[in-house]
């Protein structure tokens, strides 16, 4: 392979698994304020296959073809002009820009403000599973639910990628945490600190819970609707799997009147359910942030938070990694190893 090209997973059209393929493409160069990272591992998330399917086109329409991948870990290869916060050889990780992606490749260009140094105690594959899920959990719990000491928080689907971070971060913020898991996931969520675990295969959580201060919904659908029955009056339900609402357009996406109106209509039913229970509904579309990611790195380095990696796939088997993620069986994060080190 030429030094000017690289392997990358390229989305050529919207659709099924064959809509993305490994190709050789030109290696990117960093512009002002950017860093070229040699990628050693990239995390996979539901947003990746939803993007491939075209399910998020109303939120983010990419010019195709485009290199996929929303988070990475690797080594700084080259600095763009005016970048002084990193040096070549630094071990870094990042959540990629929403409008660019690019993490599922041998090299990626990342704005310096989105990068953070990896915790020294973890490897690239572990680090690659942190940025998107970790930042999502942090922003939901701290910024949206405003979790405080003594709060009672319900996290649905706690054994998944975001859930494993959310349980640990909620406990660190002083909350009593209840979550749902299967019998297979119970040991994991208890190990992470969950105080109460409801087996969703045998119990309905709304029959066991009441007067929760807040709910972090990771499942969407009818589980989201049932969540309003467990939150106390005046409480808040934050979801990353439900329907975007007007604040998502304004606050998370910087959208105008059209997108705000579209989300107002699309979320009308779930907001009506929230009003019925005297609760607030918020759909969170997280934002990349290098400073917040550096804070997570500190928590990982001090063992206050532990990333949970389910499986690591080699780059040549990235299609199998997607299939495993889409099966819903993963406990923790699914990672693709771009290059071993």
Reconstruct the topology from this structure:
Elements (H helix, E strand, L loop, with lengths): L4 E7 L8 E7 L7 E11 L1 H8 L12 E2 L3 E9 L11 E5 L11 E5 L3 E3 L6 H5 L2 H14 L7 E4 L5 H12 L3 E6 L1 H10 L3 E4 L12 E6 L3 H7 L3 E9 L6 H7 L4 H10 L1 H9 L3 E4 L6 H12 L7 E6 L3 H10 L5 E5 L4
Parallel strand pairs: 9-10, 9-12, 10-11, 12-13, 13-14, 15-16
Antiparallel strand pairs: 1-2, 1-4, 3-5, 3-7, 3-16, 5-6, 6-8
Helix pairs in contact: 3-4, 7-8
Question: Can you give a write-up of this model?
Answer:
There is one protein chain. The strands form three sheets. Strands 3, 5, 6, 7, 8, 15 and 16 form a seven-stranded mixed sheet that branches. A six-stranded parallel sheet has the order 11-10-9-12-13-14, with helices on both faces. It has a three-stranded antiparallel sheet with strand order 2-1-4, with no helix packed on it. It is of the alpha/beta class. The mean pLDDT is 96. It contains eleven helices and 16 strands. Helix 3 crosses helix 4 and helix 7 packs antiparallel against helix 8 (257-266). It has helices at residues 46-53, 124-128, 131-144, 161-172, 183-192, 221-227, 246-252, 257-266, 268-276, 290-301, 318-327; strands at 5-11, 20-26, 34-44, 66-67, 71-79, 91-95, 107-111, 115-117, 152-155, 176-181, 196-199, 212-217, 231-239, 280-283, 309-314, 333-337.
């Amino acid at each position: 392979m030429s030094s000017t090209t690289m392997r990358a997973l390229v989305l050529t059209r919207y659709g099924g698994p064959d809509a993305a393929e490994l190709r050789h493409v030109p290696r990117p160069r960093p512009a002002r304020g950017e860093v070229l990272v040699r990628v050693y591992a990239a995390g996979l998330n539901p947003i990746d296959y939803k993007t491939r399917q075209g399910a998020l086109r109303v939120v983010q329409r990419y010019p195709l073809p485009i290199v996929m991948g929303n988070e990475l870990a690797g080594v700084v290869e080259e600095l763009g002009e005016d970048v002084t916060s990193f040096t070549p050889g630094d071990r870094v990780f990042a959540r990629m820009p929403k409008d660019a992606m690019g993490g599922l490749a041998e090299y990626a260009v990342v704005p310096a403000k989105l990068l953070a140094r990896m915790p020294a105690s973890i490897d690239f594959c572990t680090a690659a599973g942190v940025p998107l899920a970790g930042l999502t959990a942090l922003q939901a719990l701290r910024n949206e639910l405003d979790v405080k000491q003594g709060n009672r928080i319900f996290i649905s689907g706690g054994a998944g990628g975001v859930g494993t971070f959310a349980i640990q971060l909620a406990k660190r913020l002083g909350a009593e945490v209840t979550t749902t898991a299967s019998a297979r996931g119970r040991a994991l969520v208890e190990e992470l600190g969950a105080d109460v675990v409801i087996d969703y295969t045998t119990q309905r959580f709304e029959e066991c819970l009441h007067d929760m201060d807040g709910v972090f919904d990771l499942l969407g659908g009818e589980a989201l609707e049932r969540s309003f029955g467990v939150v106390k009056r005046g409480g808040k339900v934050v979801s990353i799997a439900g329907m975007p609402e007007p604040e998502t357009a304004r606050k998370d996406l910087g959208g105008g009147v059209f997108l705000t109106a579209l989300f107002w209509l699309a979320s009308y039913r779930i907001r009506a359910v929230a009003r019925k229970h005297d609760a607030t509904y918020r759909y969170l579309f997280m934002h990349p942030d290098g400073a917040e990611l550096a804070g997570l790195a500190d928590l990982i380095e001090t063992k206050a938070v532990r990333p949970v990696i389910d499986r690591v796939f080699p780059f040549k088997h990235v299609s199998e990694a997607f299939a495993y993620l889409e099966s819903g069986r993963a406990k923790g994060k699914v990672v693709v190893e771009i290059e071993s080190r």
